[in-house]
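Onboarding guide, step 5: your first structure request.
Type a short instruction followed by the sequence, for example:

Predict the 3D structure of this protein.
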Amino acid sequence: MLPGAISLEGFSAKKDEFRARKIAVYCTIGYRSAKIARQLIKKGFRAHNLEGSLLGWIHRGGHLVDEKSKRTLKIHVYESSWNWVPRGYKAIWD
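The system replies with structure tokens like these:
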């Protein structure tokens, strides 16, 4: 995940705290996050889909953290055909 980010579940549990803030929504490639951003906008949130999502973020030099906020080079992608990670990163899929 992005440093400082919270999960969708964490957001949902405290969504009223974020109503007046800008919200960046992301996923691996941006498809799911675009749908969620549109839903949040309809509910009055200032939501924006992160252009390029996680894959774009790491290709532009951004870094990721794990659930303990430690830097990680692992990123979950859908399947091997979505393994578009830059050198040094490891794509993981189920």
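Each response can be followed by summary notes, for example: Residues 31-42 form the longest helix (12 residues).
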